[in-house]
TrEMBL record:
Keywords, ordered alphabetically: Chaperone
Encoding gene per record: hscB
Gene3D superfamilies named among the record's database cross-references: DnaJ domain, HscB, C-terminal domain
UniProt source species: Azotobacter bryophylli
Database matches in HAMAP family: HscB
Family: Belongs to the HscB family.
Protein name listed in UniProt: Co-chaperone protein HscB homolog
Subunit architecture: Interacts with HscA and stimulates its ATPase activity.
Source organism, top-level taxon: Bacteria
InterPro entries, sorted: DnaJ_domain, HscB, HscB_C_sf, HscB_oligo_C, J_dom_sf
General function of this protein: Co-chaperone involved in the maturation of iron-sulfur cluster-containing proteins. Seems to help targeting proteins to be folded toward HscA.
J domain residues: 5-77
Amino acid sequence: MAKPCYFALFDLQPGFRLDLNELSARYRELARQTHPDRFADASEHDRRVALERAAQLNDAYQTLRSASQRARYLLTLRGHELPLETTVQDPAFLMQQMELREELQDLQESADLSGVGAFKKRLKQAQDRLNDGFADCWEDPARRGEAERLVRRMQFLDKLSSEVRQLEERLDD
């Protein structure tokens, strides 16, 4: 089965800025229509096709709902494949990441849940700035390098954000 454009699955125009509530609503509707249980009495072929469609829909949804994954996907649609493991060649950004990780480690050691909340808010603001930067440049072929750098930074902040959520869960228990 050919892999359709993820945006087309949800009847959306390819773009970075998405209404995530609209995406979620379309996903739920399509998931109901393509759920493999609806094909329990169908032929083996139809059950397999339904399972493939459901898996494809899940992959598309997971990709499009994440800003960094959506950004990577958009660049891929434009023919610019980024390796999964990418490095950032910006010493100032890398230093900032080290400082943020040290701050997060201090928050963990002090079990400062309110500090983690403030950290999370600052991290979200940084992610929003990267998202805005990517939205402004991804369609301009002359700014492709900038778009790729922003995606790499987005991935770093996603990983840090995941670590913050894990720390919040541990401290909240």
